Amino acid sequence: MAEKVQPVFPIEGDIVHARDGMVHSNGITVIAIIKAPSGSQLTVNGIQATEQNGTFKAPLNLTKYRNIIEIQEQQTGETLQYPVYWASKFAGGYRLSIDDNIRFMQDIAEHVNTYNSIFDNPFLKNLKRLHDQYEIRVHLNMFYQSEQGDFNLSEFPEKFATEWAAQRHWIRLSFHAYQEFPDAPYKHASFETVKKDCDLVQAEIKRISTEALMGPVTTVHWGEVNLEGSRALRAAGYKGQLGYFNVDDNLPPVSYYLDVDKRRHMKKRFIWKDEQEDIIFIRSSVVLDVKTKEEIIPFLESYRKTSGLPPYADFLIHEQYFYPDYKAYQPDYFEKIETAVQWAQQNGYHPAFLEECIFS
User: Fold this and answer.
1) What is the 3-state secondary structure (H, E, C) of 273-292?
2) Cβ burial, residue 3 (10 Å; 0-12/13-18/19+)
3) Do 51 and 105 fall into the same domain?
4) From CA 210, how far away is CA 215, in angstroms rounded?
5) CA atoms of 316 and 96, how far apart (whole Å)
6) What residues contact residue 75 under an 8 Å CB cut-off, 6+ apart?
7) What is the rounded CA–CA span in Å between residue 164 and residue 174?
């Protein structure tokens, strides 16, 4: 049956959200779409599907987070079963995610005797300003070591642990990579290599913030690992793994181990779960540092013409562009972030961590 009957929407591992159908008190109703030979007699969870030129449709009620879909061919009795998820809180959330973080940690460590707060650091001070004004949620993906090798997270003082923990309502810290170079360091790495570096960073996050800022989502450096690498991240607790999932263009894939078909699905859906690996993949909406400030809103608005606005808006940027001594310094760094945040608010999005939106 699997060769003849092909679910189009939702497919196995799809995570359905409020923009996919009609939300009601018991869950959501979406229209299941299936490709099958003309003349087939299909039911979807017991509901007769209607046919139009080999495309079959039926209303589908999803009432739980994890739902089993059963498609049955009435003439043969053959069935196809697979899981689909209903994430009632996914649509409408947004966050700021920042990759390649290490420099602000080094600055705080170097000023441990003069800084009374982590927010004496200019980078974090600006993030707090945006949080105070817009209540943004910020996810910081951390390097273990600086590019020059003159600082690593083990040197960060515990003096600020209580203050870090007090920011748990709006800051998350997670593993990104050991250091910035080489590019795509885990593309062909073993489970053991990825897990070792991940454990190293996580141990320091726990020491620095007493676990209060840790969560089940991360973005690995360059978004490139093989299946064993993603399994290592999952073993470390990262059930959600974010990337770009570029396809049909000349951009880096940033898509973990997903093949072309799954990347195309991610490009359209923004979210999908690999049921076998128990990993949820999430697509970022925009990389702010590759856009000029003037390009950000037109780029986000362009989604309306393709797959529709992102159900959840992830705004991604890299730390190093904030600093005047960086070769690609962007003096309007925080203006770019604020532009994206204002667009989100004007379009009905609210601040929310991914962990609040994709696991229930």
Assistant:
1) EECCCCEEEEECCEEHHHCC
2) exposed
3) no
4) 12
5) 6
6) 40, 41
7) 14
CB-based burial label for 252 (10 Å; 0-12, 13-18, 19+): middle
Q: Is 132 contained in some domain?
A: yes
Q: Which tokens is 197 given?
A: 């570096």
Q: Can you give the residue range of the structural domain that contains 202?
A: 93-356
Q: How many CB atoms lie within 10 A of CB 39?
A: 8
Question: Cα–Cα distance between 274 and 266 in angstroms, integer?
Answer: 12
How is residue 78 annotated by DSSP?
A: -
Residues of the chain with pLDDT under 50: 2
pTM of the model: 0.96
- Write down which residue in 86, 110, 125 finishes a domain: 86
What are the structure tokens assigned to 339, written together? 């532009």
Cβ pair 137, 353 in contact under 8 A? yes
Sheet containing 66-73, strands listed edge to edge, beginning at the edge strand earlier in sequence: 15-16, 79-86, 66-73, 42-44, 47-48
Q: Which structure tokens are listed for 78?
A: 């053959």
Cα–Cα separations (whole angstroms), residue 113 to 106, 120, 128, 146, 191: 13, 12, 21, 21, 40
In a domain, 1, yes or no: no
Name the β-bridge partners of 60. Answer: 30
Please calculate the CA angle 25-26-31 and round it to the nearest 5 degrees: 105
What share of residues in the chain are helix, strand, coil (percent, to 5)? 30, 30, 40
Of 70, 86, 102, the position where a domain reaches its end is 86
